[in-house]
Design brief:
Blueprint lengths: L44 H4 L3 H14 L22 H19 L12 H20 L1 H8 L3 H10 L7 H4 L5 H33 L15 H14 L4 H18 L2 H22 L11
Helix pairs in contact: 2-3, 2-8, 3-8, 4-10, 4-11, 8-9, 8-11, 9-10, 10-11
Length: 295
């Protein structure tokens, strides 16, 4: 073999890269066949349009969420509807069903392999619910916004994004099978759907988007200052009534992302926090009705 035919030295591994290529969030650049090679098979849609997988499920979830009624406000007013508050379980169930269909459609574009969550992720989830509820109880974000003169705009934003705060025991009858059936759907959305689609959109799309132009080739866990800022600002805006809890929790999630570089760790931590938060709402809400505002 001539010197020109000898393979060059392999690229040194970047210590910031994940342990294997499978942890990348989307397929990398398509291989171009050289002379004498067979042309590669056409790439599937998730390789040609990697943004669809992280965006579509959350888009459907958010659009349908705009139809949900809240106390004293009918749902769907933006498109001329007047969905009553008692219809919230139907709207929510439809939202979860269509979001599940979207996830199934884009499932090949989700990160693989499915890696086992670490104990660190479970610990972040446990600590996270304490931080969220504690900061919500203290209402420090409202005090801080008032201190800097932003209380008015923040309250306006919170009113536009008011949570349904639906208590199935009072709205559907305490102890009724229908109320418990809806709680099963509500917890499925809270624990299985929301962590998956929110983490993929935030950490698998938005954050890499500000790291590199070719965002789909950015290894999971590689961040810069702009990505860290995005990981805090976007959740704060998405949770206007709990800005400080959102900043604290998603900051912990970004620390976990950088530490373990495992997408499924972030999903697991989010799921644990949401599960415990849901349990807290259902139990504490029996004596403290304001707790239902957490969902």
């Amino acid at each position: 073999m001539s010197d020109s035919e000898r393979p060059g030295p392999e690229r040194a591994a970047d210590p910031r890269d994940p342990p294997d290529a499978a942890t990348r969030l989307a397929p990398g650049p398509e291989h171009v066949a050289g002379e004498g090679e067979a042309a590669p098979a056409p790439r599937r849609w998730w390789g040609r349009h990697p943004w669809v997988a992280p965006v579509l499920p959350l888009l459907i979830y958010s659009v349908l969420g705009g139809l949900e009624p809240s106390p004293g406000q009918s749902g769907g007013r933006a498109i001329g509807l007047a969905i009553p508050y008692k219809a919230y379980p139907l709207v929510y169930t439809l939202k979860i069903g269509l979001t599940l269909a979207a996830i199934a459609l884009v499932l090949p574009g989700y990160p693989r392999p499915l890696r086992r969550p670490s104990m660190t992720a479970l610990a972040v989830g446990l600590v996270g619910v304490v931080v969220w509820v504690g900061l919500w109880r203290l209402a420090l974000d409202r005090w801080l916004l008032g201190f800097v003169g932003l209380a008015g705009p923040a309250e306006k934003l919170a009113s536009l994004a008011a949570r349904p705060a639906f208590n199935p025991f009072s709205e559907m009858g305490d102890g009724r099978a229908l109320a418990w059936a809806f709680l099963a759907v509500r917890f499925a959305g809270l624990v299985a759907i929301v962590p998956l689609i929110e983490e993929f959109f935030l950490r698998g799309f938005l954050m890499p988007l500000v790291v590199a132009d070719d965002w789909s080739s950015v290894p999971f866990g590689r961040v810069n200052a702009a990505a860290i800022a995005v990981s805090l600002i976007i959740p704060a805006l998405a949770h206007p009534a709990e800005m400080l809890p959102a900043i604290a929790w998603f900051g912990m999630g970004t620390w976990l992302m950088v530490k373990t570089r495992n997408f499924w760790d972030c999903v697991a931590a989010h799921a644990v926090t949401n599960l415990l938060l849901g349990v807290y709402v259902v139990t504490a809400g029996q004596t403290s009705p304001e707790v239902w505002n957490l969902w």
